[in-house]
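Q: Sequence in, structure out?
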Amino acid sequence: MPTSKELPPSTVPFFPNQFFRNQFRTKPQYPPPSTNLSEKVAIITGGNTGLGLEAATQLLSFKLGTLILAVRSTSKGEAAAAKLRSRYPKATINVWKLDMSSYDSIQEFVGRVNTQLPRLDMVILNAGVSKLEFGTVSSTGHEETVQINYLSTALLAVLLLPALKSKSPPGTPGRLTMVSAALTLVAKFPNRDESPLLPSFDNPKYWDPNDQYCSSKLLMHLFLWKLVDYVSADDVIVNLADPGFVKGTELGRDVTGGQRVGLSIFASLTGRNKKHGASTYVDAVVSKGKDSHGGFIMSWQIHPFPTLLYTSEGQQITERLWDETLAEFEFANARGIIESMKGN
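A: Exactly. Output:
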């Protein structure tokens, strides 16, 4: 099967054609009932609620041996873990602190992975936000949506690559799935010509609460396009998974008033349930093969990237974003880690 890079760009309009197909014309795919994950170790960020918690439940239903819920609030994480432990008493379920708005917290978390886990098979980077008001993270100065959905997720992904490679069984690649969104296909990305690029996301003049979310997810597509030039699918299979539009999650928790009522009605009419939404994560991290490496999975199928990535303009933006992102992560030696993945 061709990879996302090898597929031609999609020409199907997202609204209403692609959206209708995604929500109503596709069927969930689950691993075979015989799937046994009893020896495996998995990490899920934001695993105490919503799609992260549902994905954890599904992995545990396939006898997952060890689960780490990486959460900002350990008290909420322990509450979720207690329910999971009562349901799956044979599994080892731990709660580890991870604040995705803090580079220090991310590095501390990865240090714990490196020193305390003898094995690591799969990671689902699920934590994300969709902000309705402009705000910045005090420790970095970056706009919150781009900080969490792109920068912090990219840093965590890069820092986990060596562990996924070295701590998975010989001959079996580690698995890293990052949560994306079909809305990347309609991202306006109005600041694409800015140089440097990353600081322009921190400028309120470009702020659009709807497009900032779409563009933040698009940035990860651009980053992944380049990342797989360095990471072999024999070592770690890295992909992006879109859960579709799912009702009952906390992604829209900041919505209030009439907008909240409207969103609730729209979700009740068109939204997938959490079981189907989370199954996209499990499918991507458990079932999809090496042809999903560096790819975008939408509605349980390998899908083309947004059209921009296939253009010369998109390639120039990709290179600019890549260089700026690795410069941002210089404190963590991200460039050296990525280079080492290619060299081994």
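The CA atoms of residues 59 and 282 lie 7 Å apart.
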